[in-house]
Amino acid sequence: MKKGLSSHVLKVMSLFSGLQMLNIVCSVVKMKLVALWLHASGVGLFGIYQSVIDNISTFSELGIRQSAVREAACASGRSRMAVVAGVVRRWSLLAGLLGAVVMMGASPFLGKWFFGSYGACWGFMLLAAAMVFNSLVGGEQALLQGSARLRQLARSNLWGTLSGLALSVPLFYYCGATGVVLSIMAYAAAMYVCVRVYRLRTPKPSPAVGLGQLWHEGRGFIRLGVYMALASFVTATAHTVFIGIINHYWGTGDVGYIQAGDTVLVRYVGLVFTAIGMEFYPRLASVRDYPRRTSLFVNHEITLLLLLLVPLLLLFLLLREPVVRLLYTSDFLVILPFISWGVVGSIPKAVSWCMAYTIIARGDGRIYVLTEGLDAVLSVPLCVFAYARWGFAGLGAAYIAWYILYAAIVGAVYYRRYGLRLTVSTWRLILVAVIVCVSGLLAVDTLPLYVAAPLLVLSGCCFLPPLRRMLKR
Are 124 and 52 in contact (CB under 8 A)? Predict the structure, then answer.
């Protein structure tokens, strides 16, 4: 294994975790200003326009942001990388134009659907430009990530986010409701300008990439991207169905509580997963044809992730009440059982997450859709039943069972299809992590805080020596 790999992964995780926190802060500031100056209608407009962009982009961008990372990671030599970069950039432009055409074509119907008038289509038509910018940004980010230019990727995101916020503030203040559309366009343009500054520099391919080569070189990652987009659509649909059932039988208030808890578990706790994935995915793709190295990297990633996660999860369990009060209000303390049991589900989630990256690193799109689809189908009845029977605590326990089932599904592919294995030491660490987190949760729920706090702190500290040893290798 490459010397200093654990230390490198930790640096990348720190870099992108901080960047994601900045993105969250900027998003909060932006929505606070919208609510202050444009009131609830402005927030609603922002949600409508952004949801339309997200839904159309899911398919129009062809999953290039994720699938092209694998293509760039597998490129060897400057000449090959030049060809890959040219192909990815052209496909990104084509995907962006496709999204713009769809947005403009659907704009009269979207105006009628959301605002009751065909004449309200102008806002959606203006957003066609944002579709092009977003697609081009995705292509450039994929090239930077796949070629391990992670600092350049982080800097482009940093300056793009700050520039987008700086441009949005005067638009909200001076342009009123019109500023919502203009701010989305300004943010997309700012991100594109910044990613252009830091983009991957490659020589022009010789000979130039023609239409035939564009199709031949791009069809592999486009096919994988479509599969990944389909998997995302299936997952989003399952979540929508679940929320619809909760809203129908229990009411909008329960939906709000569940959405808040889900945000804590997925967006905030998930910062660690997303940050490590920035480095792990391209590294795994680069060794996709070497089973022993793939197995070595997966076991290393699970070990490092669990050694980092368990102390953080124990700290979260100790601070869960002030965290909820800080993020929401005291009314949301009812979700404490949900997020408390849900964070324990981060252990099987970490294991399944690392194994699942093997599927997309190998370009196995159909299997990826199958695993994600099966996971989505199982999640809805499981969560509905648990919530109906045991409330928020049951929903948290359902998250644990859900991630265990997903780990079993992905593990079957990992073991049977690819012939890969987790080591005995990895299994031992998984078992210890589960026992420690469950024990910590029971201690917080049943013991006085002055007794539970030292126990959890001591348990978390036990994971620091092995983590320190990993970082020194």
Answer: yes
Q: Quick check: 406 and 375 in contact, CB under 8 A? A: yes
**Amino acid letter for position 397:** A
**What is the b/e burial string over 243-259, where b = at least 16 CB atoms within 10 angstroms of the residue's CB?**
eebbeeeeeeebbebbe
| Residue 466 contacts residue 307 (beta carbons within 8 Å) | yes
Could you please report the per-residue DSSP string of 425-448?
Answer: HHHHHHHHHHHHHHHHHHHHHHS-
Tokens of residue 274, six digits: 């997303």
Residue 448, by phi and psi: left (phi above 0), alpha (psi -120 to 50) or beta? beta
How many angstroms separate the CA atoms of 339 and 346, rounded?
Answer: 11
List of long-range contacts for 378-381, beta carbons under 8 Å, 24+ apart: 378/402, 378/405, 379/238, 379/242, 380/238, 380/241, 380/242, 380/245
> Each residue's pLDDT tens digit in the chain (473 positions)?
455 777 878 788 788 888 888 888 888 788 778 878 887 777 778 778 887 888 888 888 888 888 888 888 887 777 788 888 888 999 999 999 999 999 999 889 888 887 777 777 888 898 999 999 999 999 999 999 988 888 999 999 999 999 999 999 898 888 887 888 999 999 999 999 999 999 988 777 666 666 777 777 778 788 888 898 888 888 888 888 888 888 888 887 888 888 888 888 887 777 778 777 888 888 898 888 899 999 999 999 999 999 989 999 999 999 999 988 887 878 889 999 999 999 999 999 999 999 999 999 998 999 999 999 999 999 999 999 999 999 999 999 999 999 999 999 999 999 999 999 999 999 999 999 999 999 999 999 999 988 999 999 999 999 989 888 887 76
Measured distance between the N- and C-terminal CA atoms of the chain, rounded to whole angstroms: 9
Q: How many CB atoms are closer than 10 A to CB 153?
A: 25
What are the contacts of 402-408 at 24+ separation with CB within 8 A? 402/345, 402/375, 402/378, 403/345, 403/346, 403/347, 403/348, 403/349, 403/352, 404/348, 405/375, 405/378, 406/348, 406/349, 406/352, 406/371, 406/375, 407/348, 407/349, 407/351, 407/352, 407/355
